[in-house]
Each structure stands twice: as structure tokens, then as C-alpha cells.
Design goal:
386 residues, alpha+beta, 19% helix
Amino acid sequence: MSIPLRWRLLDEETGATVTECADIDGLFVDRLFPAEPVYERYTLVSCAPSGPLLAAIDGTGPAWFGNFGVVGACASDHPGTEVCGKCYRTTEELLDIRVVGHRTAADGSGLLDIELEGHRRDDDNNGGGTVAPDVSGYLLFDWSGSGTPVGECRKTAGLFHARPDGWPPGPPLTLLGCRPGLTGSVQAELAHVRVDGTVNKLGWDYRVHARVVSTRPSTLGDDHMDIVLDAPIPRPLAANERPIWDMWRAGGPATPNQWAELDRSGRFLWVQAAAAHRIHAPDKPSGTVYTMDGRFITDYDGFFCAIGEAINGPGGWFGGDSFWLHENAATGDGGATPGFRLIWEHSQVARAHLVPGYDRTSWGPATTFDDLVDQLIQEGVQLELR
């Protein structure tokens, strides 16, 4: 019986095929992306507030901050709000922060204990953020954009503790319907195989480092094996990605704007799948004119869905953030020779939707229509808005 082999394990050192399989149990985990953050309460203990933090307490300013920086002061004689490299190693960034209460500190200092509500950025913070650093106190900053100092505090409460992994590891993998079988240890990179035989490697986050626990004849065919491994991949795919990957396996989007019905999280996953399945080809000749359909650009990720298709056709990829937009537009290798002309049709849709504010997907200032226009022009794109 012939079965479709959807996945391929490639030896990390040689690139040779280790095995192929029809499916992988544990690759798509039962969760959605993006995950809703867990909001927490934090206390700034014995705090001397200033600027916007003081205004949030006395009612002369908004209680909501956006992003808030808590930076450990590296010595007791640290001057004012000066921050050095050692301080930044103990930085915690708190997101979507709101002041929800305050009271006189219990230590008799005349300072305040200030209650905040929000959540912690779960990467690049203080080595995991589970244990309070050995510091003399904390410097506080409004990081919503200006980086304004907003005071100091002696301690914090509720901030340093163990938390569930923001992207928990999936279960150990079981390779279903493999040919050939495996024994011993495996150090391989995972690749997705399309029906036409195109092989797309998934990258470092999808490597398989494991040992074979057991093998058994597969119910998918007498000459195939199911192989149980003892470890997961570093970052499994989310359950709501499977339909998108199945479509790409079958050949990819056939017509433009198949992403238009998706919500923003689905559009983000669409862009990630487009990047993973990108077919590298030389940039199109200088002077090529591209037309971008702007009818459905109602959010940041929709812009990247649309520009990817304008440059590279249905399901095309031309970046998913400002870094890759720069790399592709200004330096090439994204499908278009730098300096290309882009006609942005129905640009009024993005103008109406991509407005200033706080983006609760990226957890920072929203990228606006004007921001995208300015970047495209700075990257040398000959932009025409219609």
C-alpha cells in the first residue's frame, strides 16, 4: 500500500535523509496561537514615584502605562536614574501595565507600596525571572515609548516566581508510517514534503534530538514502521496551524487573498507558513512593477500577507516584520530587485485601520499606516498610493 510521506528527517551534519514518515504525533499540539497572557499583580515596595507614575496615583494622569521597566540598581550608591550594563542584566519588562492601587509603606519610611496589574514579557528577562536579583533596589521607567524615569523602589513583590513555559514543549514524538526504520539516537532537522516532492526545511526550532524508545509495524502499511522517540521538538506547531500546512502540502494557495477571511492570529500563522514554504528564486528584473491589493489590509499581519502575494504570487512571502521588510526591500533576495515600484491599491483601508495605539499582539506601540509608508520609501521602494 502506497502512503504519502509528508515529513522527512534530515541528518544535521550531512543533510542526508534519515527517514520519511506519513505523520508525526506530537508535532501539532492542542493549543492556539497566540496564547492569552496571564495577568498578574505586582507590588512596588517602598516606592518613591515620580512623573507619570506619580500622576497615575494622584489622578492627574492615566492609570494605564503600556510597558513598564523594572531595572535592578547594581549598587547602593547608584546615582539617580543612571543605568549601566550590569543593571540591564537584571531588567524586567512588564506589559499592558495599569496602576490599580497604592498605600503607605509598612516600613515607616513615608514611601508608598504601589499595586500594578499586567504581565511579564517572557523572553530576555533576568535569566528567566524566577529569583529576585541581588540588587540594592530598582529603577522604574515608563517604556511605552519615551523611556521616562518614573521613580525608584526598594523591593518588589509578585514579580519573581516560576511560571509555566510560554510555549510549553510538546510530548515526545511518535513518527507514524516511517520508511526506513530507525534505531539508536537521532539528530536531525525536520522538513515538510509537498505532494510535488518539494522539500522545505523547518529550521533550528524544529530539530529532532532524541533516542528511539521502540518501534512497531505501522497500521498505515505493512512495510512501514511507527517509531516512538523519547523527546519532543523544541517548539511544536499549534493546533490551528494544521489546516494551513495541509494546504501548503497540497500545493499552496492557488488564488490571492485566501488569507483574507482569517483573524489576525491566523494571518500571523499564514505568514509563518509562507516563510517556511518559501521557494528561493532570483529576484525579478529591475523595473518590474508590483500591484498590492489593499482591500483586506486591516492589521499589521495582513499587510505582510498582501505584500508577499504582490511580490511573489499567492502564498508568497516578503517578510513578516520590519526587519525582514528591510532585508527584502533594501537588499534583495526576497523576489524583487531593490528600488522596485509598488502600487498600493485601496490604501485607504489600511490608513483607516492601522492607526496609533497599543498593539496587544506585539505588546508595544502599534505600527501605523504612516510607519509602513515611511519604511517602504526609506528602503527605496517607489510607492504609489491609490
